[in-house]
Structure formats: C-alpha cells, structure tokens
Amino acid sequence: MAIKKPARRTQAKKQSARKPPAKKPGARRIPAPREWVAPRLDGKVAVVTGASRGAGKGIALVLGESGATVYVTGRSVRGAPTTDNVPGTIHETAEQITARGGRAIAVRCDHTLAPDVEALFDRVKDEQGRLDILVNNVWGGYEGAGAYPTHFWKAPLERSWRGMFVAGLRAHLLSCYYGIPIMLPHKRGLVISTVAWDHNKYLGSFYDIAKHAIVRMIYGLAIELEKHDIPALAVAPGFMRTERVLKYYKTDEANWRSIPQLRRTETPQYVGRAVAMLAADGRILRKSGQAFRVGELAQEYRFTDVDGRQVPPFTIPASFEKILEEFERKGTI
C-alpha cells in the first residue's frame, strides 16, 4: 500500500509558522539598561534636604557627580550625636561629593523650624543667585523606638504627628515656600519630593495620610507653577538599604545578600540616579504633577543601580491588614 505523502505547506504557511507568539494585550517591551553615565548638570544649583544619610545622601551624591553644586542639609553634624545613633552626617555626605569631583556645601538646618529654613534659602540666594533643583527628602517619621505598622487608633499620637507631619509634610511645604521664589524670576527650576507611594494602595495610619498629602502638594504646585515652566514631581523609591535598614537587620553593604528580606532592595543612589535623569530631561514638564516609582524611571531612562541591577518598580504586595498580620506574627515586615 502506497504511503500518502503529507501535503506540502505553502510558503505563506511556512512564514506563518515562524512568527513569534502574539504579545499579551498591554504587554510592553522594556529596553535593556545602559551602562551608567552621569548626566551633565554643570552650573546647576541644588538643595537636598535630609541628606545626612539615606535617600537624601544618595540623591546628593549623584547630583554632585553630575556636576551640580549641592547644598547638603540636615541636623546631624560631625562631632555631635546623630539621630537615633544612625551613621551619617551632612559633612560626611559633602566630603564624599567632593571626593567624586563635585562641589558640596553642608548647611545644618532643622527643617521643622521656619527660621532655619528661611536662613538656608537666603544663603543660597546670596551665594548663588539662583536655585535650579529643590529635592524635599527630609522625614522624621522613622525616628525613635516603636516606629512600626499598627492600626490608626493604636499609633503613638504625638510622635506620629511630629515625625510625619511636622518633620515630614510641613518640612516639605516650608522648603517649597522659601525655595520656589528663588526660581520664579528665572522661569526655570525643578521641585521633587520623595515619597512612599504605590498608586492608591493604603499605606496605613498617619504614614499614609502624610505621604499622600505630599503627593497632593506636588499636584497643586504643578498647577501653580505651570505658567512659570517649573515642573514639580513626586518620586517614590523602593525598599532601600539605608543606614537605618542595615542597622536594623544587623548587616552592612557587603553582606546584605545573605538576608532574604533584603534581596529585592536597592541602594539610595538608585533614587539619586532617577532624580539626576529627571533634572537632565529637557521635556520634563510633561511629567509635572505626577508621582513616579524609581523602578519605572529606571526602565524609561535605562539606568541601573550601582551594582548593575535594574530593580523593578516597588509594589506593595499585600493589603494593610495582611501586612499587620505578618508583622504581629514575625515581628518584622
């Protein structure tokens, strides 16, 4: 019995067979990151608040290596106790900027005190005559014992109010109040506030209210500053390996990989690179009034963290109630 040969496929069918599978609806190709090259911000004047350590220090370091003159502000100074005995001072940050070839000016400033903040920006105006980049990063909400997630009615009232609203929201407002008028005559500048944010997800208690109020502040500033061509943005880092976090987990930057909870963390310089790329973006006005996660900006501008990883955008993986249950069970998040 003769074996029937299979029908020969037409050329069209052959081509169809070689086509890659269709992309899922809404799928977006993420360009590969590039080797980091700091954007040039020569001649720019920046103020970074809360830059003794953490995100503020990371931002100040990258702006400095990019060529900006950076005013490094905060309360922790050399020769005096630091906040909660966590390492880092404004002078150490300034010296590290200088070591990278940048120019830094350390200014002690208690951002909860209006006279201190006013004096800071008077000094910037007198010494530089301009202000190009204002980064509001100061935040007192993690200070002191007992800074942990809890129900609204169980939160320490006075400490939460002072740390998150007086030393957080109000401190951001004060810097904008005194800093933005220096930008207005030049019709240029950039205002950025660092926040904790994952769209409309609830962050819990006083923390959620304070952080989302800063996002709303940025939205309002963008409306008022639009005619002056000055953009205002909120930038949300992920879970950072700050000095405070490393101290909590009893590790350091050389050994953090052995701790499971830190595997998807990022350095404070990751948000610094995001801020530097935003400051160098000639079309940044189209972003004004919005909040962005650092991982999203890394994908858009194609940069990595200092260790070469492009850490994905941080997402809150569970509801606030689930987070509370996990904390009560393990004693950690």
Task: Describe, in plain words, how this protein is organized in 3D.
It contains 10 helices and 7 strands. 39% of the residues lie in helices and 10% in strands. The N and C termini lie far apart (72 Å). The chain has one domain (39-330): Rossmann fold (3-Layer(aba) Sandwich), CATH 3.40.50. With 333 residues, it is α/β, with parallel strands linked by helices. A 7-stranded parallel sheet has the order 3-2-1-4-5-6-7, with helices on both faces.
Beta strands, count: 7
The CATH class, by name, is Alpha Beta
Proportion of residues in β-strands? 5-15%
Output the radius of gyration.
23 Å
Largest sheet: 7 strands, parallel
**CA-CA gap between termini:** 72 Å
Any idea what the CATH superfamily is called?
A: NAD(P)-binding Rossmann-like Domain
Q: Looking at the structure, what is the overall shape?
A: globular
List the helices and strands and how they pair.
Blueprint: H1 11-17, E1 45-48, H2 54-65, E2 69-74, H3 90-99, E3 103-108, H4 114-128, E4 133-136, H5 157-183, E5 190-194, H6 205-225, E6 232-236, H7 243-248, H8 268-280, E7 291-293, H9 294-301, H10 320-330
Parallel strand pairs: 1-2, 1-4, 2-3, 4-5, 5-6, 6-7
Helix pairs in contact: 2-3, 2-8, 4-5, 5-6, 8-9
